[in-house]
Amino acid sequence: MKRFEALDGLRGICAMFVVLFHIHVLLSFAEFPFFRNGRYFVEFFFILSGFVMYFTYGKRSFAEGQFKDFLISRTFRIFPMHVCMLLFFIAFEAIKLFASGTVSA
């Protein structure tokens, strides 16, 4: 299977810019005009990811049962990171809430 190393780098850069676009910290570098148009990085990231996924799986024919195995393997590849980030952001928002003084311990 051929790997597009240049596209991996571009996807990584776009992913970092997407994160910076979604961070709303006052007076940070994420407020520069360059990052205010971060929605274009989201679109570019999805276009690149779609191309790579089509190139990898587009011509693949799945035998009976293989598609189910494929979906399960993809889910268990992505789901742990999703849960980890969800817990991180819940903790981050709780810390922000307590730091603001709105809620007392």
UniProtKB/TrEMBL annotation:
Keywords in alphabetical order: Acyltransferase, Membrane, Transferase, Transmembrane, Transmembrane helix
GO molecular function: acyltransferase activity
Residue ranges of every copy of the Acyltransferase domain listed in the record: 5-98
Pfam families (alphabetical): Acyl_transf_3 (PF01757)
Bilayer-crossing regions: 12-34, 40-57, 78-99
PANTHER family: ACETYLTRANSFERASE
Protein name: Acyltransferase family protein
The species this protein was found in: Chitinophaga caseinilytica
